[in-house]
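Below sits the subject:

***
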Amino acid sequence: MPESYDLLIIGGGVSGFSAAMYAGRLKMKMLVIAAVRGGTIITTNDIANWPGIKQTDGTTLAKNIEEHALEYGSVKALDDKVVEAEKAGEGFRLKTEGGKEFEGRTLLFATGTEWRKLKVEGEEKYSGNGVHYCALCDGYAYKDKVVGVVGGSDSAAKEAVLLTQWAKKVYIIYRREEIHPEPVNMTRVKNKIEEDKIEVISNANVTEIKGGERSMTHAVLDREYNGSKELELDGLFVEIGHIPNSELAKGIGVETDEKGYIIINRASETNVEGAYAAGDVSNTGFKQAITGASEGVHAAYSAYEYLKGKEVRPA
């Protein structure tokens, strides 16, 4: 028989472990299943918007939340990948890549997102060999080199500023007229422009990535820049948004919006009774670690109230 829990959580990032922490406080028997613990926030080296902490990094924040959750005896965590989710009576059943099965009276999707790709010729060929999706992870390899960042969001601006720690020049390549980061990061970009460390190429798209046998050498643009459509680069960092990991949720009938994000209400409830979502995978417009943590806490409390209402009290 599969192990049974009051709450199963898929995803081990800030949202998942915040939910686990609160479920632990409510003495719910629960399990967090995550292929990789920490979530995408571990790729962030500078966090200055977590209340009460003036500055920290993503790895430290994620680890602290995880350790807090695991202090509660009713909280367990498993390093594995969920490959199948299905309804099982009034609850849910999960199957993992490692061949394990679990049943839960309630279920939380804190599955996050994955990086959106350019889908141009050469991207896959040079992935990891010039083409990257995380400056914190791979930027150190470009000391005194020239790199590009594709995108105009706040995340793209932060990636570009971070890369100036290593690269001698960073090009921001954006398809529209002006980049649109938060004011504080716009100021940082402008400061780096004045230092000739960052240069913005606007109204341009990358249409192809060229290179040799081992690594990329050029990004091909759809318009000329300084007399050529080929921009010589040692590396290219893609920051053009994310794709929600919502396929498991769709499999049990959870509704998503037109972009694939799971639709939730203020209590983190989905349209499926007993199923919840939190964090980047949800359709909330403002996606931050603090909002994801809040949604996780809402989900845990909603699950608790749901079980209490069914007169199935958490263990």
User: Anything to note?
Assistant: The helical segments are 14-25, 58-70, 135-138, 154-163, 183-194, 247-250, 289-309.
